[in-house]
User: Fold these one by one.
Assistant:
Number 1:
Amino acid sequence: MMTAVLLALLLSQSGGPEAPREPAPTGPTVTFAPAESPLPSLVYGKGIACASLGSSPQVPSGRYRLQCDESTRRCLAVPVNELEADGTESARPLERTAPCHELAQGLLQRLIEGYTFVPAIAEAPPGWYRDERGRVMQFNFDLHRRVWLGGAWAPLWRMGEPSALSRGRVDFGIITEFPDGEQMMRRFTVLDTELVLGEQSSLDTTLLRYDTNVRQDKPPIRVTTFLGKPRRWDFTFDMGGWLEVLRLELLRRGGIDHIFYTFISGHLTLDLWHSADLASYVRVRAGPSLEYDRTHGFFALVPGAVAEGNLTLDRNGFHHLTFGAEVEKLVLDREVEGRPHHPERLRVRAGYELILLAINDQPLSLVLEGRGQWRTDLVDERPVWEWSANTGLRFSLWAPARRSAPLAASR
């Protein structure tokens, strides 16, 4: 009876059941300075605090990321969520931000009393850019580390024969590299594959390739000249290694399938030039390969030599250039009717790749490439130069920012 009376009294005072209310804003309410143009950005790598500055129509959560400067007595403040197109806070948290520590209430009160709070843009890691709504996007790409899938038109011309224009190429693979301090770069390529469909079809795939670029600490040869003032000249030999395991090459020419298995190849490399980070290089390499001719059923030793380059032409990785020239000669092989004993192969190539745009921060590239080869190891095939020109697109499923990527503010 007493409980019912108390309940009736409470309802009479309140006028009925109370409707649900929005959570009360936490923390003090802060007045912001007028927004600057362009908006300043928090600095990546410097200390960042999180605090509640009071709810507002634009930022209902009232939660901000803060970076304060004692010399200017300013605090840059960024909502913890992305903004909608109209400038109001969304429910999407900021991506790729640095960790922040919660600001003590007493320290926050002192900042409010003595500092100016300025609207800003959140920090972004090297190689990434953040717009005024807080959305982050990648602007720097490392094409020496990626998973790729590409397609191209690949017409072929053989001297004295009709052009093979109805050819297409599909290529895919995985490449990554690991610096060992500042003195060595280790590079791995897995399932490097090219499939050409249509006339004069072919398949070239390699299970694993490993190579290194090396920078010598001490030059092995030092020459001093004494014409006038003594001068010292240092000569370095930046030698590394190149290893290829399980390569399959299949070519269809004249209705015949020519199949070659290369079980292992080992080359010594000599860098003629490399970039400071060892990612780009121009080099020569030479060494033997163990090859099995599946079509005719015998093994052969194949010494070869290559001059090649792999260059990123700009600091954001949008322009990528590759080139090479290779010569091989089969020795310890068996004589086969229809081709010379100890046949030879010559190959040249040059390619250029340009990043056009990014889909979900993964780059889509335009690929332009020219190739030529001359070989005498194909039975009943005239040894003539054949040339191909490949034009297509390549999508990199994983391409992180370069190790030398700048912060967006320093672009």
Number 2:
Amino acid sequence: MDGILPLYKPKGMTSHDCVFKLRKILRMKKIGHTGTLDPEVDGVLPICLGRATKVAEYITDAGKRYEGEVTIGFSTTTEDATGEVVCQKSVDKIITKKEILRVLEELTGEITQTPPMYSAVKVNGKRLYEYARQGIEVERPSRVVKIYSIELLDEQALYEGETVSFRFRVSCSKGTYIRTLAVMIGEKLGYPAHMSSLTRVQAAAFTLEDCLSFSDVEKLTVEGTIHEVLRPIEMALNDLPKYVISDKLIEKVKNGAILSVPELFKAEKGPIVVTEADGQALAIYQAHPMKEGLMKPTKVLRV
């Protein structure tokens, strides 16, 4: 089977756990996920099957959308609800909706984040969470990410109590830590904070409405109809420019031929999807590193 399976990842499983379970259900080895989703986060996890594993990185690199909850009043070691409390400060004033909206606006656009210690980022060949489990604090590389939009999902005008929670929806670039964003929201309001819940509602072109549960996958596999619900490889390449070639070039592209860069794509620095007239993706091309005016395939998708 070749295609993309939009999976609903339940809480309590890692992305790798999901791949392992699907290998057993589908009885196939060539399966890959499209980026780590923390165990306590549920939601959209596109899974690539067969030839679709070649395009997994383009889903990973695409924007994501989440709906979650920030709790103000204490922070944790993991920046989410699973960690131990490290800092506590009761909310001693009323927080207004207007204040929250101002903070969300300040955090929209390009922001700099430092990945949490409990994350999969590698430092000196080891994952940060490996250091964290050993009680070792290491210097973490900051990164610039883009917050396209943040919306407050709660309607109340005033928030008060020892702790305060509110829900939000955020659209963001690859590499954004929503846990860290929750902490940043708290800091701007003057309190320690953490992310108390999170659901990924969209990854690239795939939404919650598209997703299948593990029980759905098992049922369709038994019925022999699972292939009917797989999404085409092309859905992973929606955001990339497309170059439609003539029939006489199809076999050359399948064999990995070097092509001239079309005039339309002369200024294009990123990858270009070469397709047939019907939109079927044949290969992904990039400017040739040594031969100006030419481009070479980085991935041949159909042979």
Number 3:
Amino acid sequence: MSMIQKIDVFPISLPVTQAFRFSSGSAGVAGGNAPIVLVKLTDSEGEVGWGEGRPMPQWAYETIESATTAIRTYLGPAILGQEIVDRWGLHQRMHRAIGRGPSTGMPVAKAAIDMAIHDLCARSTGLPLRSYLGGSQERNTVTLSYTLTSHDVNGVQKEIIAAREKGFHHFNFKAAVTPETDVAVAKAIRQAAGPDAFVWADANQGFQSHEALTVARGFADAGVNVLEQPFPADQLQLMRRLRNQCPVPLAVDEATVSPADFFHYAAEGLVDFLVIKVTRSGGIWPSLQQIAVATSAGLPLLVSGLTDSLLTKLAACQLAAAFGHQGPAALNGSQFLDESALYPDKEAIEFDGSVHLNKQSGIGVQPDPQALTLYLKDI
């Protein structure tokens, strides 16, 4: 049986082409760089697998330095010699090396390793990841949701026109950045996007308790399909209070890092969707557990990301496709990152507002080695 023999860690910075604000910060600035940690696992048969972590300290508590150090010094040594197909055992080893607090410890760093082991396992069987996870190769298209960056009516109208020309039909926007304009922006999005668009408002923990219900009522009138994470992740009591009167479906993101986190929200009936975010949740294996909870609770799926690169986008789409989810997926890295050198075949995979999964084994893409050297950071 193949074992993990080698772990290579590549902290890189990808160019940011444009920024977008959310209530707790922004995803870089145009002309700046986005921190990413790539992991390459090699097994005893010489097969390799790739994974990615996208640390965003504005969103949580991991940085490129902490994630890189955690993998090199703690998580990597802990998993050497691990049987590659034993994903449960892999996570047990990682949790012993870096334990949990109220939720999963260092989920972004663990997600990079988890993604790499799933890529490695699927490659070793000759299957696309979606088939390795139990899905059909024929389910191969996931529709994307376009992330709107403007916070005024004219701005979002222009963005939607441009996005529709590129093949996008569904839209997500950041609420609570300028709460006084949220409802007007939502109405403009629905009008410009049309009645069939899925309109997704993400507050990123940004509302105060007195604002949320008023805005949610306006969102319901505007035709918003879901309001995500209105309150800080540790304010469960505010979600309970809002739920009793809220006229728009609810979802949480930052509040459900672990499967147990999501279970609490599902068990209390506080949410209407599970938001799959592979990087946030510590990888594909814990995400499978969250999906099991959602399925048992009768809740549908949504997919989002952290402006990750194409590697995570494909991993998330492979996971979604395995369970028959066709989108919309708010995987927006290509809107904000220049990853053309790192993934030169990207245009054959992502076009017309969708991700088109091929039958290649594993996740379906690997970073270009020369570009990897170009973007490498000294950590």
